[in-house]
Amino acid sequence: CILLPTKCIDAFTLRLNPVTVSRSSHRISSFTALASASPSPSVVERLDLADNFNRWRFLQNFLDAEIQASDANQVLYCVLDAFVKYPLPADLSETVSPVATPAVCETIQELLSTHNNGSIPAFSDPDCRPGNAQVLEKLETLLPDPRENEDAYKGSWDTVLELHGREAVKINERKATPEWKAICMVARLLIYFDFMTRGVPTS
């Protein structure tokens, strides 16, 4: 049965069955308190980013500027946080994944500690516009250097072309709006930090 708030129950019902009304009110209050106390699911759980297809779709929508800024900022935080907590073994061969050098870890730790609310303010709503300029500058330093890591540099761009479409990327690169520059940069960063292949590791 559906339990109605006490204030919606008329005086006639109150006179007929005060015990039932009292118990109903108690159950409603208990349910409300439990709902308030339940933790909200993380962005990884809510968007089911443990699934490879959903991660692919997330990046597609992100490149189309169809992702909420809050979701993009939280995913970015989770990916960088997981990189520091659960880095890939340093002896992996033939990999284009980032290496957890002291300089890289220091930059990431600075971003995580400065914005320790589970979100890095790279974007703001509406339309996932560029957010904190200093944050975006620091994030850009984490991208692979085309001279030192050509494979990783090309690989991230190849994935963007596959996700967004070659012609669409050409048009956006020609327009070079601040919105596209920020979104494309962070998308390449997520790709470089193995978001497509590893997702957000928890161990």
Describe this structure in words.
By secondary structure, the chain is mainly α. Helix content is 59%, strand content 2%. It is built from ten helices and two strands, in the order ααααααββαααα. It has helices at 11-16, 18-37, 43-46, 52-63, 69-85, 102-114, 133-140, 150-164, 166-175, 178-192; strands at 123-124, 129-130. The protein has a two-stranded antiparallel ribbon. Helix 5 (69-85) packs across helix 6 and helix 8 packs across helix 9 (166-175). 25% of the residues are buried. Residues 1-39 have low confidence and may be disordered.
Supply the key terms.
2% strand, disordered N terminus, mainly alpha, 10 helices, two-stranded antiparallel sheet, 2 strands, globular, 203 residues, single chain
Question: What order do the helices and strands come in, and which of them pair?
Answer:
Blueprint: H1 11-16, H2 18-37, H3 43-46, H4 52-63, H5 69-85, H6 102-114, E1 123-124, E2 129-130, H7 133-140, H8 150-164, H9 166-175, H10 178-192
